[in-house]
Inverse folding.
């Protein structure tokens, strides 16, 4: 799936990991966040550009800080982006 390597895919994967750590099903997370279960699934698969407000609702429902969720996802995304650079571009840096 093309979204798996995107920031949204990484963010969604991190949400799923935290949901599993919390012992929540998608329905549980939906109930605690006030969002719909199908929306949670779409977000976890990286298929939807989630708003920052909905991301805040999910992070609060999971009991994690929004900035940590975003920071962790950003770090993974940037690491992936830098590993995709052609060798000649990386050698010139």
């Amino acid at each position: 799936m093309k979204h798996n390597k995107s920031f949204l895919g990484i963010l969604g994967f991190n949400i799923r990991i935290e949901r599993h750590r919390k012992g929540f099903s998608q329905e549980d997370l939906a109930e605690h966040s006030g969002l719909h279960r199908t929306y949670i699934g779409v977000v976890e698969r990286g298929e939807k550009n989630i708003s920052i407000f909905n991301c805040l609702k999910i992070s609060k429902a999971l009991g994690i800080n929004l900035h940590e969720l975003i920071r962790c996802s950003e770090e993974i995304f940037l690491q992936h982006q830098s590993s995709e650079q052609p060798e000649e571009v990386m050698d010139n840096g």
In short: The CA atoms of residues 26 and 38 lie 8 Å apart.
